C-alpha cells in the first residue's frame, strides 16, 4: 500500500429517524449507512461509488461528523473521531476537508473569493492578518486562477472556476484528507477532466489523500487507486481499480460497469439491465440487499446476509459480498 493507514472506518451506521403520529414519536428509520468498514492509506485515492441513495454521501458526512454516527467508529490518524468533544473536533477538522458539488452553496454570496479564503485562514489561525491576502492569492494560483480574480464574487465564476475556488478553500487549511463529494458531477466533460487532473497534481504536490464520492464509475476510473461499491447502505465490493474494472465479481458491480459507454465507435459492451428500482432504505430487503434485483438470486440470498470475503486476488485486497460469486463468474 502507498503509506500508513490514515482513515479507518469500523462498522459505521447512520440511521435517520422518521417521526410520525400525533406525538411525533420515532416510528421507523432510514438506514442510510448500515455497517460499513474500510480503510484509506496515506497518499491514495479511494472512491465510494453507487447509485443515488446508496449512502455514499452520508458516509462522507458521518466520517467528518457533519452528521453524528448511529454506531461504529472513525479513526483518523490514530485518533477516534467519534469520541472527540466539540473543541477537539474543531481542531481536527482542518486535517479533513470536504469539497461539495457546488462549493459556493455554503458560502456567503456577498464575500469575494479572497475574503472567503482569508476567513478560512483566520478561523483556524493559520496566517497572521498581514499575510492572509498574499496566502489567498497564492492559493488561487495553485489551483489555476489569476490574482485579479481574487476580488470577484461567487456569481462571477463559471462552474469549473467555482470548483477551483472550492479546492483552494479546502487546501487553505493544509488538510491531510479531502473528501470530494460529487465534486465534478455538475461539470461538463472537458472541465471535469481539467478538475480531475488538477486534483491529481495537487495530490502529488501536497501528499494529499482523497476519499472520492461519485455515482459515476467512468469518472472514478480516472482518479482512484481503490474503489468501494455501495448499494443500499452496505458495501458490495472493494477492489483496486484494475481488479474492479477487469475482474468485477459482484453482480451489482458488473451491472454498473456494463452501463459505462465505450468511447470507441463500433464497440459495445453487453448491457446488464437491472430489474426494478432500488428498494427503500426504510425497509431494506432481508438477507442480501441486492436480492430483489439480482438475476442470480437463490432462496438463501433472501435470508442470509453475505459478508465481504476474498474474491481470490488477495494481493489486491479484492473483497466481495455475494454468496455465489464463484459460481456466477466461473467460465
Ligand atoms: Fe445475487 Fe445472491 Fe449474490 Fe446477492 S448473494 S448478489 S442475491 S447471488
Keywords:
331 residues, alpha/beta, Rossmann fold, 2 domains, eight-stranded mixed beta sheet, four-stranded antiparallel beta sheet, 10 helices, 12 strands, 30% helix, 24% strand, binds iron/sulfur cluster
Kindly summarize this structure in a few lines.
The protein has 10 helices and 12 strands.
The number of distinct structural domains comes to 2
Q: CATH architecture of the largest domain, please? A: 3-Layer(aba) Sandwich
C-alpha Rg, in Å?
21 Å
Q: CATH homologous superfamily of the largest domain, by name?
A: P-loop containing nucleotide triphosphate hydrolases
Question: Spans of 5+ residues with little confidence (pLDDT < 50)?
Answer: none
Order of helices and strands: EEEHEEHEHHHEHEHEEHHEEH
Question: End-to-end distance, in Å?
Answer: 31 Å
Q: Describe the biggest sheet?
A: 8 strands, mixed
CATH topology of the largest domain, by name, is Rossmann fold
Q: Which CATH class of the largest domain is shown? A: Alpha Beta
Number of helices: 10
The unique ligands bound to this protein are: iron/sulfur cluster
Give the amount of beta strand, in percent: 15-25%
The average pLDDT value, as a whole number, equals 91
Structural class: alpha/beta
Number of strands: 12
Shape category: globular
Amino acid at each position: 500500500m502507498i503509506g500508513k493507514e490514515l482513515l479507518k472506518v469500523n462498522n459505521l451506521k447512520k440511521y435517520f429517524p422518521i417521526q410520525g403520529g400525533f406525538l411525533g414519536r420515532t416510528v421507523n428509520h432510514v438506514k442510510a449507512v448500515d455497517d460499513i468498514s474500510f480503510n484509506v492509506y496515506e497518499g491514495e485515492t479511494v472512491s465510494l461509488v453507487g447509485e443515488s441513495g446508496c449512502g455514499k454521501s452520508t458516509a462522507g458526512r458521518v466520517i467528518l461528523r457533519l452528521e453524528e454516527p448511529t454506531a461504529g467508529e472513525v479513526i483518523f490518524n490514530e485518533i477516534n473521531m467519534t469520541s472527540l468533544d466539540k473543541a477537539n473536533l474543531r481542531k481536527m477538522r482542518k486535517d479533513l476537508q470536504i469539497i461539495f458539488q457546488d462549493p459556493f452553496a455554503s458560502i456567503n454570496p456577498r464575500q469575494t473569493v479572497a475574503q472567503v479564503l482569508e476567513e478560512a485562514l483566520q478561523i483556524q489561525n493559520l496566517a497572521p492578518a498581514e499575510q492572509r491576502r498574499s496566502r489567498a492569492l497564492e492559493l488561487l494560483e495553485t489551483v489555476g486562477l489569476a490574482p485579479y480574480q481574487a476580488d470577484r464574487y461567487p456569481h462571477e465564476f463559471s462552474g469549473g472556476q467555482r470548483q477551483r475556488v472550492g479546492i483552494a478553500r479546502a487546501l487553505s487549511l493544509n488538510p491531510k484528507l479531502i473528501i470530494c463529494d460529487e465534486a465534478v458531477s455538475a461539470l461538463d466533460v472537458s472541465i471535469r477532466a481539467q478538475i480531475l487532473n488538477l486534483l491529481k497534481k495537487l495530490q502529488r504536490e501536497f501528499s494529499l489523500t482523497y476519499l472520492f464520492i461519485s455515482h459515476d464509475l467512468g469518472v472514478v476510473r480516472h482518479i482512484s487507486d481503490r474503489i468501494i461499491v455501495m448499494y443500499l447502505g452496505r458495501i458490495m465490493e472493494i477492489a483496486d481499480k484494475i481488479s474492479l474494472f477487469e475482474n468485477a465479481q459482484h453482480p451489482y458491480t458488473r451491472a454498473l460497469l456494463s452501463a459505462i459507454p465505450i468511447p470507441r465507435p463500433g464497440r459495445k459492451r453487453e448491457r446488464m439491465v437491472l430489474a426494478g428500482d432500488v428498494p427503500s432504505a426504510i425497509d431494506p430487503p432481508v438477507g442480501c440487499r441486492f436480492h430483489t434485483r439480482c438475476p442470480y438470486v437463490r432462496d438463501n440470498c433472501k435470508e442470509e446476509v453475505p459478508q465481504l470475503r476474498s474474491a481470490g486476488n488477495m494481493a489486491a485486497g479484492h473483497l466481495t459480498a455475494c454468496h455465489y460469486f464463484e459460481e456466477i463468474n466461473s467460465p
